[in-house]
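Got a spare moment? Tell me how you read both lines of this record:
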Amino acid sequence: MFSFFKKKFGSAPAPAEAPVVAVNVAVDVVAEPVVVPPPAEAPRKSWLDKLRQGLRKTGSSIAQVFTGTQIDDALYEELEAALLMADAGVKATEFLLEDLKRRVKEAKAADPAAVRGLLIEALTDLLRPLEKPLAVGQHSPTVMMVVGVNGAGKTTSIGKLTRHLADANAKVLLAAADTFRAAAREQLSVWADRAQVEIVSQEGGDPSAVTFDAVVAGRARGCDVVLADTAGRLPTQLHLMEELKKIKRTITKAQADAPHEILLVVDGNTGQNALSQVKSFDDALGLTGLIVTKLDGTAKGGVLAAIARERAIPVYFIGVGEKLEDLQTFDAAEFAQALLA
């Protein structure tokens, strides 16, 4: 489960500034200190075990590099090949190798096992810019537009996020703007029922109109969050990408400072293709965050290093399964440990 540092929604008179919910990290805009017990150790440990298991295919190929007895050019060449096979990409691989060699020299390491520990540190530092909490409460409502290609797990991720927000006492309104796929509306309706939140839906309607109505309704009903699910499409489908731009403009018409978050859901198992999607959607819409799904059983977990090096957009959540608790906040050190330990 997420650990929300929060002021309880709907409690007492509204303070001068809107209440803020942040995932795992306290947010500076909170008017007064918020004391929240740390997350339960057992659930987080269970999550880390799942993450390690999910990244085993990626990590095992890299770990084999450190089974030798010498630190030499052959080790670095094998490591380069393993990182490229893990879809870390050329730029991130070159950066990691240069950084690693510097760390090995400074530490005067003589054991390949020690080099692995230094690589964990180097990868953690590379991934650190991707760490950022998803904050809710600075705007009323906070409007989130969620995009992604078909099959990436977009609607499911929205459902899980909705449930966690609702569990944190946030009032959420869903916009079923994927109007061309009946299954998407039905799927989102199921999540709305589970989380006991309202949904704005229209069969075969214009996606921009549905989103506009949802934002207007969210403001009128005093919602904390409006989450808009958009139709899945490939970034190469230019006419459909233009439709996403139209939805974004429509949201701004409904609420001048919105959308506040534009989230891309990407399938981590697609490797370098995921990086291409990040670049394309970011160029078209200006992404504010990522949700990386399907990292369970992947051999391409190194793609987060490529994203960090080439387009460092915050990764709000990563997923390693279908259950509610399988979508968790991203932590650079945890990810590097799970990948390489």
The first strand starts at residue 4 and ends at 6. The mean pLDDT is 84.
